[in-house]
Design brief:
Order of helices and strands: HHHHHHHHHHH
Radius of gyration: 21 Å
Distance between the termini: 40 Å
Strand content: under 5%
Shape: globular
Number of strands: 0
Largest sheet: none
Length: 222
């Protein structure tokens, strides 16, 4: 449930920044969003590690309650109400959504469980690999053929957009990959507990916290 509801926050945040903020304020809005997107992976494990060691792992699911309530209150006050357009649901690319969900879910399971299950030596991993390949190929076919695709992949042919997506992809690997690998190393090799791992990860967010305020000036200048 948390992943399903939280997954819409990133595209909604970008949409609100671009559509509601004036042109001069958009760099500030994007910088604030970048601050939350880059600093959160560093501070989140710190809070989660403390809660896990002192209260139990179940309490990490309550971390978002207070920030979520504050966010809802601020959105309620600041956004003008508009009627829902439920008719747009029927126009959604549901075949693309289904094939993408199946393909990515199968692929993620393969990548997470493959090493434990001896990769292609496991019939379960083999079946999931086939499902992922078929579903993702079907997703690509759907996106290139339907009138209103979930993802307009043709935009990648535009040089600036394509390079921007590539840079964002590499940033995601570096940022979130380290958040995944470093705790594994500290836990299995160094023997750190959850709270100690969180304290180490907190320091990785410090450079980002210091550099993000410079982003609006750089965006306005270049």
């Amino acid at each position: 449930v948390q992943g399903f509801t939280g997954g819409v926050l990133i595209p909604m945040a970008f949409t609100l920044i671009i559509t509601l903020l004036p042109k001069a304020k958009q760099p500030i809005g994007l910088a604030l969003f970048a601050l939350s997107a880059t600093f959160a992976p560093a501070i989140g494990p710190t809070i989660g590690g403390y809660l896990t060691e002192n209260w139990g792992w179940q309490y990490i699911f309550y971390v978002n309650l207070v920030p979520g309530a504050v966010m809802i209150a601020m959105l309620y006050v600041s956004l003008d109400p508009s009627p829902m357009k439920l008719s747009l649901i029927r126009q959604g690319d549901w075949l693309g959504i289904i094939t993408m969900a199946i393909g990515l879910a199968a692929l993620q399971t393969v990548l997470e469980e493959g090493n434990k299950d001896d990769w292609l030596g496991s019939p379960f991993i083999v079946r999931l690999s086939v499902i992922a390949a078929v579903a993702l190929v079907a997703f690509l076919i759907v996106e290139f053929t339907v009138e209103k695709p979930l993802l307009n992949l043709r935009l990648l042919a535009r040089r600036n957009f394509g390079f921007g997506m590539l840079a964002n992809f590499l940033l995601g690997i570096a940022l979130y990959g380290s958040v995944f690998i470093l705790p594994q190393y500290l836990s299995r090799i160094q023997g750190y507990n959850a709270e100690q791992i969180g304290m180490v990860l907190a320091w990785t967010g410090l450079p980002q916290l210091l550099l993000i305020p410079l982003v609006p000036r750089l965006m306005q200048r270049f």
